[in-house]
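May I ask you for just one protein sequence along with its backbone structure tokens in two labelled lines?

_____
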Amino acid sequence: MPKSMNMSTWMKAVQALLLAVAVCFWTGAASDSARFNDLGHRLMCTCGCAQLLGECNHVGCTESGRERNELSAAIASGATDQQILNSFAAKYGMTVLAAPPTRGFSLVAWVAPFAVFAAALLGTILLVRHWSLGRAEAAAQAATPEMNALREKIRRETEAGGEV
């Protein structure tokens, strides 16, 4: 019986090895297409359609085919993702990038929306507090004896059937 267990263990090891090799080949074959898809969604088409390069599908686009070919050639040449993005930005300008870089002055594009939201929220809170404090001061002023006497006089003069 120990001999059959040994054979079973070897069969499982061979099956695991074959599965690992198959996964590696499948991943390796799909890596260029996965990189193309990833980079195509990180770049904008420069024809003015405001679509991602990987998604540009409008009829008669003169730019997307050429840019996709350029992207495929860059991937095939072995350039890194950052090198490809930098070359596209150098050739077409920073507007070709779907998202601005997170360094230098471009960092403002990431920070500004949150800063504006925080400032607007703070302004709203201060405005509501100012209104609330103003209402509390008005209520405190309304409770003076002079105001109470004035209210009583107005109530008497405006009662139904009251005399002037």
Summary: Residues 102-164 form one domain. The chain has two domains: 1-99, 102-164. The two ends are 120 Å apart (CA to CA). The mean pLDDT is 81.
